Amino acid sequence: MEKWHIVVDIEKCVGCFNCMLACKDEHVGNKWLPYTDEQQKHENKWINPEKHERGSVPFTEICFVPHMCQHCDEAPCEKKFPDVVTKRPDGIVLLDVKKAKGKKELADACPYGAIVWNEELKTAQKCTLCAHLLDDGWTEPRCVQSCPLRALSIVHCEDTEFEKLADKQNLKPITNGSNQPRVLYKNLYKFNKVFVAGALAFLDGDIEKAAVDARISLSLNGKKLLEQKADFFGEFKFDKLPKNSGTFTVECLMEGYNPIRQEVTVGNECVKMELMTFEGR
Ligand code: SF4
Ligand code: SF4
User: Fold this and answer.
1) In this structure, which residue's CA is closest to atom 4 in ligand 2?
2) 181-188 mean pLDDT
3) What domains, with CATH codes, occur in the chain?
4) Which of 56, 66, 108, 210 is most buried, judged by most C-beta within 10 A?
5) Which ligand has the nearest atom to the CA of 181?
6) Mean pLDDT of 191-208
7) 23 in ligand 2 pocket by Cβ < 6 Å?
8) DSSP per position, 233-249
9) 19 CA to middle of ligand 2, Å?
10) What is the mean pLDDT of residues 189-204?
């Protein structure tokens, strides 16, 4: 059977919040019963592009990670509240509007923080994937439709077909995937991996200049893993390194100068190396 799957591309999302506003536009002031009651105007967000920073000045990077209900196949919310939560055959997870009333504890049942408490209506709510629209023949929920960068996409296909797509595009769940989420992320390294960055210079007389095109390699336990050239500013960056992946050797080479070797330990955070200056042989 064909089911719904969502793909979020972290490299494409610019944090414009159009998805969140489209969700508000669809659900604030509108009751789409029996799917959901209306969304609270303020605070409650059923999709939330959260800012995530990596690195430190001058090697800083910001990305936005849209968080929403993952429509899990092994949903913890459903396990805890089977009388309130329904998993539809097409993959969409819905809360029973009547039974969710007064159940603030539903919010704690979601490890993704996707269930919010509507204080005005005294009810628990979450993203419905605009099931009222999809059931009416729409091919996209409002968030996907409104994303100007196509950072969000929806795929309606058999699970086996989607698995092939996930393999091909390296789509990953935002956590370890044990709840079998139906929302998968592309380029998740911006959120869960780290980089080692630095800058290289050389002395031309008394003047310090950027070591453009110097060659830099990254090795672990004597094995060269990555190699690149310094850019126009003499800067380099080795990205997509797993957190806590060990102590690496950074070796920098420039013709006519002594090589530079430094050890860097990759922990939980990105590493900024101090400026390294080539000295003559
Ligand atoms: S993300 Fe949370 S609310 Fe959505 S299905 Fe999974 S456990 Fe339930
Ligand atoms: S609309 Fe698209 S680009 Fe804008 S915040 Fe949402 S996912 Fe990101």
Assistant:
1) 16
2) 97
3) 3-191 (3.30.70.20), 194-278 (2.60.40.10)
4) 66
5) 1
6) 94
7) no
8) TSEEEEEEEPTT-EEEE
9) 5
10) 96
How crowded is residue 114: how many other Cβ atoms within 10 Å of its Cβ?
Answer: 23
Cβ-Cβ contacts under 8 Å for 276 (sequence gap 6 or more): 198, 199, 200, 201, 252, 260, 262
Is it the case that residue 206 has pLDDT exceeding 90?
no
Ligand number nearest CA of 15 is 2
| DSSP-based three-state secondary structure for 164 | helix
Q: Is a pLDDT exceeding 90 seen at residue 102?
A: yes
Does 11 contact ligand 2 (Cβ within 6 A)?
A: no
Task: Compute the average pLDDT of residues 117-145.
Answer: 98
The distance from CA 99 to its chain's CA centroid, rounded to whole angstroms, is 32
| Type of residue found at 62 | I
**What average pLDDT does the chain have?**
96
Kindly state if the Cβ of 141 falls inside 6 Å of ligand 2.
Answer: no
Length of the chain: 281
pLDDT over threshold 80, residue 210: yes
Residue to probe by mutation, ligand 1, list 45, 85, 115, most atoms within 8 Å of CB: 115
Please state, in angstroms and rounded to a whole number, the distance separating the CA atoms of residues 256 and 152.
Answer: 49
